UniProtKB/TrEMBL annotation:
Entry function: Catalyzes the aldol cleavage of 4-hydroxy-4-methyl-2-oxoglutarate (HMG) into 2 molecules of pyruvate. Also contains a secondary oxaloacetate (OAA) decarboxylase activity due to the common pyruvate enolate transition state formed following C-C bond cleavage in the retro-aldol and decarboxylation reactions.
Protein name: Putative 4-hydroxy-4-methyl-2-oxoglutarate aldolase
Lineage: superkingdom: Bacteria
Enzyme class, broadest EC rank: lyase
Cofactors named for this entry: a divalent metal cation
One Pfam short name: RraA-like
Record-linked CDD domains: RraA_family (cd16841)
Subunit structure: Homotrimer.
Substrates-to-products reaction catalysed: oxaloacetate + H(+) = pyruvate + CO2; 4-hydroxy-4-methyl-2-oxoglutarate = 2 pyruvate
NCBIfam families named in the record: PRK06201.1 (NF004850)
E.C. code: 4.1.1.112, 4.1.3.17
Residues spanning the signal sequence: none
Similarity comment: Belongs to the class II aldolase/RraA-like family.
Organism: Fusibacter paucivorans
Length: 231
């Protein structure tokens, strides 16, 4: 049986125009448009120094803990604009990639990013790379290359489901997932949120923020204010 040991060669992809439009919007503003439940667990952090947002489409990998055979296969399929997203059951006992694979991904395959729910190694070198690399840690212990695993199947990583072809956005705050079927609607709303956020920042700097909502919210929740010292 091929279940658990298979590679799908095709994905349904969103339009390039929509993907490109997300490059100027912070991950936080986009996440706010999705009821704040599509951000990966903050254990998955940026490990490199790209100097720009990571934006691209998911090429998903499901592998057993500490094994990177299917990651190698995904790299052979990946190209510009792809983000290889790896579900490794959150294991951090073995690094899934090191500098060699990261350089291959960046220079030969020209991928848009790498995201792992596990460890990497050669952190000193990867930390200097322009390729966006997100992982939950690092260790000198290397991976196995035996399989099994799957490529371009639904996965879960950092507590969030990811389908092949979904859009991922990553910056210094972390990574979010945008379901491809909702991408156009999320983009339209994110642009509005981004503009409003800029207005809020300006007001915060100038001391003109309207904080009336705080008192109103506490009153609605029947918060008690006590004009005394807590003893």
């Amino acid at each position: 049986m091929s279940v658990g040991n298979r590679v799908y060669l095709k994905r349904e992809l969103p339009s390039k125009e929509i993907i490109e439009a997300f490059k100027t919007i912070p991950a936080a503003n986009i996440e706010d448009c999705m009821n704040r439940i599509y951000g990966l667990n903050p254990e998955i952090k940026r490990m490199s120094n790209p100097g720009k947002n990571m934006v691209g489409v998911a090429l998903t990998v499901k592998t057993r803990p500490g094994d990177n055979l299917m990651i190698h296969q995904a790299l052979e399929m990946a190209g510009e604009g792809d983000i290889i997203v790896v579900s490794n059951e959150g294991d951090r006992s073995r690094a899934l990639i090191g500098e060699v694979m990261a350089q291959y991904a960046q220079c030969t395959r020209k991928v848009a990013g790498l995201v792992f729910d596990g460890a990497i190694r050669d952190i000193d070198e990867i930390a200097q790379m322009a390729l966006p690399v997100y992982a939950s840690g690092y260790t000198p212990s290397g991976p196995f290359k035996e399989g099994p695993g799957e490529v371009n199947v639904p996965i879960a990583i950092g507590g969030v489901p990811v389908m092949p072809g979904d859009i991922l956005v990553g910056d210094g705050d972390g990574v979010i997932v945008i379901p491809k079927a909702d991408a156009a609607a999320v983009l339209a709303e994110a642009k509005v949120v981004c503009e409003k956020d800029a207005e809020k920042v300006k007001a915060a700097k100038e001391g003109t923020s309207n904080k009336q909502w705080v008192g109103e919210k506490l009153a609605k929740k029947e918060c008690e204010f006590i004009d005394d010292i807590c003893k």
